[in-house]
Amino acid sequence: METILAILVGFLFAISVYLLLSGSLIRLILGVFVLGNATHLLIFVSGRLTRESPPLIDKGLKIAEVGIANPLPQALILTAIVISFSLFAFLLVLSRRAYRTLDTVDTDEMRIAEPEPDTQPMRGRDV
Amino acid sequence: MLAATLAPFVLGVCAPMVRRVAGDYTGWVLAVLPAALTLYFVQFLGPVAAGDTLSFSTEWIPSLGIALSFYVDGLSLLFALLISFIGTFIVLYAGAYLKGHADLGRFMMFLLMFMGSMLGLVLSDNVVTLFVFWELTSINSFLLIGFNHDKSRSRRAALQALVVTGGGGLALLAGLLLMAQAGGAMELSILLADGDVLREHPWYLAILILVLCGAFTKSAQVPFHFWLPNAMEAPTPVSAYLHSATMVKAGVYLLARMNPGLGGTEIWHVVLMFFGGATLIAGAILALRNTDLKLMLAQTTVASLGLLVFLIGIGEPLAIQAAMAYLFAHSMFKGALFMVAGSVDHGTGTRDLHRLSGLGRIMPFTAAAGGLAALSMSGLPPFFGFIAKEWVYKGTLDGSLPLVLTAVAITGNALMFAVAFLVGFKPFFGRPGDTPQKPHEGSLGLWIGALTLAVLGLFFGLFSNLSESLFVGPAAIAVAGKAMTVDLYLWGGFKAPVVASIITVSIGALLFWQGRRASDALARLIDPIWGPDKGYDQFMDALIALARGVSGVLQTGILRRYMLITFLVLATAVVLPQLFDGIGVTFQTPPIDLLVWSVALLTLGGGLAVVIIRSRLIAIMSMGIMGIGVAFVFLLFGAPDLAFTQLMVETLSVVILALVITRLPVFGSDHRGPVQITRDATIAVAVGGALAALLLTIVGSPLDIGLSTYFGERSYTEAFGRNIVNVILVDFRALDTLGEIAVVTIAGVSVLAIYAITESVRGDKSADSDAEKTP
Q1: Whole-model pTM?
Q2: B728–A contact, CB cutoff 8 A
Q3: Chain A residues closer than 8 Å to B695 by CB
Q4: Which residues, other chains included, contact A87 with Cβ-Cβ below 8 Å and sequence gap of 6+?
Q5: Closest CA to B416 of B322, B292, B281
Q6: How far lies B357's CA from each of B164, B431, B434, B520, in Å?
Q7: Which residues of chain A fall short of a pLDDT of 70?
Q8: Which residues of chain B are within 8 Å of residue A102 when distances are taken between CB atoms?
Q9: pLDDT of B183 higher than 70
Q10: How far is A16 from chain B (nearest CA, A)?
Q11: What pLDDT sits at residue B718?
Q12: ipTM entry
């Protein structure tokens, strides 16, 4: 079972990287979104898969039964989902702002922070 | 011992305050410490002369075997005494030389810290401690050379010294660590006790080369000799201290120290004799070519260091005695001559040999010091320099050695003879010259040190048995690592060394007589030649060009390029170890489970559609489908909490995305060309494949479920919750969750802030341009 999902994770990563490399702001956003999902699945699968037995302790028991799903990756992913959602929302607003200011969605043309290098860098020697 | 080493650092930090209180007497106040240190070290003279060695150790980082351990034998004691004794006079001298200088306090701080570093260096037993002090001397020397930091020449010289000696220091660190590994100990006293372990170790050559790199850069041996004359940009007290008696001798110290462990092999002899001899000749020639007093002295220092390395390279008992005797003599006469040159500069405003003459009557004490020191340097009896030179010839004429060694020594010494007379006598005789300032004698602090050192050169020559039993003998025994008889005397009969001395003096006198002509001839000959100083500039330029090239490729300022490199590195980093360790991927044929297959295909389909579809809305919908597919996966495999959260987040994301993306310009098709598409797709597939393989490897290897079991067992019994995932989040890892909430809050506030700004910007813009961009 893990094999199918591992391949799926590989595909999702490939899709996300391809989108991220496109140089268009909109595809970049989508790429980040796919990247988040791919990563969650990666963590999920690496914690092994158990069909339909959630990590709950049954009434009457004090200690979890053997054979339930691994709770640890789930806890990690739950945090990750929320954080990546925050990141995604922030990225969206930032992109919109960038477009408003710079009038482009092409990341190659966004060069405010690092303009084209035209001046020579500082030299270590001044004699 | 630890306190003695650290005291200069402590006082150094306080030096600016002392300056504020003591004013013009700063030098006298601060000199108390090195004077006290001298007395402290003097008490070891008796035991060490009797053949004892002393160790002191304080733990520092015991887990790494690093201790602040100190070791006193003849060699380290000789150095420690020179450092503290000459240091006393240098501090006095600096106080007088820089009287009234605004930064005298800072200067004294560097000087004292340097003194501490140097003491630590020569006394260290632990290799790491040795390295730390070694680097501290480099750093302090950088600060001292660059003291006149408003002059670009000073800055260049300081940086150059740091680059050269610091680079050598790194090599030394590697060499010392290899040595500690090979010998199985961190203490030099243990490592060097049985030198054959190191000499026969397969790493011997590597260790030797690395250690020699450290020693040669520090002691300015060819081809690293260029930094020392440039370091003359420093105020004269620095030159007199660092570049005559102490720091530049650190390399010589290291070689002498390592002699019992690394010395005695063919390559050691050949390399040290060759580079030492070359340095001797090169330095002596360059000294005669110059006319600036300080530069001449600096070049003779280079030559003397070469001679010392040369003698250590010969390695025979007499040569080692000669090295120690010469080292002792050199520290005294060179320290004195540097101080004399500084005083002359101070009194007349120039250091140009051609403009200085007839100062003897006006500056009697300085003249006396210069004359006496020059006599010792030129190796005339009955000065100690004579004994040292005699022993040099005894060492080179030692039976089986080729005569060319003696020839090299004679050439070097004859040149140095001429320079000694030029520096020590010429300025003080003849008619008064034309100097920028009206010449005047300096204050007591300016000549007392030079005169004392110069007189000591005479004293130790006359009482040669004293210098033999207290200084040269124990040091030579420590260097050789075995007992030997040392018997220094002024006159041993008319034998070969005396003949060599007579030849030396004759050539030297001839060169002195024709000083100006010889200097001019050498200038014509040497100046046009490419030198390593120019090479240093070319090297630095090449380095900057390389850095520019590399950052031009890596730091383009283009986001896409950054990501390209990042992903390329990611794929390589994930794949390479798997290739080397053998692929651990266990590829089981998946069971036919229709539900899982269809969910996986749904997710994949959604993802692929995002790439392919050109319509904005359908792309967003496909994204939603993919997200829901992931939620289904969570649901299928026992993670209802995840599935629930995922569904909510997906829905919200799609809604927000739809809101924002419709405000951005046309989505359209991918604008990448076919080449770019191929490249990006290749990288994408590489990353995906690498991560899939990694995941398969992980899944195929055993899983440690210790933590999960821990939570399963304690979830109810300790935290009273039946949903283990929730208990982990709100109980076991509650602080993490708090942090997460904080992150979400900050993100939310930022979103709001940016959104507000964007809207106000839009409000400023005209409505029609806005309409154009949002179809």
Answers
A1: 0.78
A2: yes
A3: 2, 6, 9-10, 42, 45-46
A4: A32, A36, B747
A5: B281
A6: 37, 6, 8, 19
A7: 114, 116-127
A8: none
A9: yes
A10: 8
A11: 87
A12: 0.89
